[in-house]
Amino acid sequence: MTARWPRAVSPLLWAFVLLSVVHVGALLAGALPVAQLTKPALMPVLACCALARGGPPLLAGALLFGCGGDTFLQIGGDIAFLVGMGSFAAGHVCYLLLFARYGAAPAGGRRGPAVAAGAAYAVLLAGTVVLLWPDLPAELRIPVAGYSLLLTAMAFGALRAGPWAAAGGLLFLLSDTLIASGIAHWPQLPAPQFWIMFTYVAAQWALADGVLRSATTAPRPTPGRAGELRAAGAP
């Protein structure tokens, strides 16, 4: 983030950092009650930090939908998982709208690199779904595939908001792929929940920061002729 923040940002930023450290530390230590208590608080604090910095309300909405996903995924069971996934999906839609509003065409608008990047994300999506499909529970295959499509679209769209947002999109892909691999009962990394949350928290931070940077540098719309006349006091 930029150095010149409103005063309210600093304590909120430190609160988010502290919560994040406590949460991932609790996951490593096996302190499940602490991890469960801190997880739903992460994204609301980051949303308040973004708003204090002058971020758009839609960004706060994206982060709060993330909070909804975090909360429902803690409950357990297929229904809660689907509701949580739906909440994350709504957050991705918010991000896509933000990238369209404040972002710029990736690769300076050059068609070749943009097409290559799109093809790479499409291959990543197809490969992940094809590999996971046989090992996913039958009732979750279609929802997970649909969610993966939206998630990949968000990660690709993040290229419009600069390198921080692009990194956040990739980290979100990694985090959710780790979740899906666990559902598919693939071999897991040591302390899998730590890696899921570490990459997720980093992803949301980077996405929010990328949007805030883009919103700061986005050109303001030029008023039309009618607006100019009204500004000049014309009837």
Q: Kindly provide the radius of gyration, computed on alpha-carbon positions and rounded to a whole number of angstroms.
A: 19 Å
> What's the order of the H and E elements?
HHHHHHHHH
The SS-based structural class is: mainly alpha
Count of individual beta strands:
0
Nearest-integer average pLDDT: 89
Percent of residues in beta strands: under 5%
Form type? globular
Low-pLDDT runs of 5+ residues are 224-235
Taking the alpha carbons of the first and last residues, their distance comes to 44 Å
Helix content: over 70%
Individual helix count? 9
Largest sheet: none
Provide a descriptive summary of the structure in words.
It is built from nine helices and no strands. By secondary structure, it is mostly helical. Helix 2 packs parallel to helix 8 (192-217) and helix 6 runs antiparallel to helix 7 (163-183). The longest helix has 26 residues, at 192-217. It is globular and about 45 Å long. The termini are far apart. Mean pLDDT is 89; it is low at 224-235.
What attributes characterize this protein structure?
about 240 residues; mainly alpha; 9 helices; globular; disordered C terminus
Quick description:
This protein has nine helices and no strands.
How are the SSEs placed, and which strands pair?
Blueprint (H helix, E strand, L loop, with lengths): L8 H21 L2 H21 L4 H19 L2 H25 L8 H22 L5 H20 L5 H21 L8 H26 L7 H7 L4
Helix pairs in contact: 1-2, 1-8, 2-3, 2-8, 3-4, 4-6, 4-8, 5-6, 6-7, 7-8
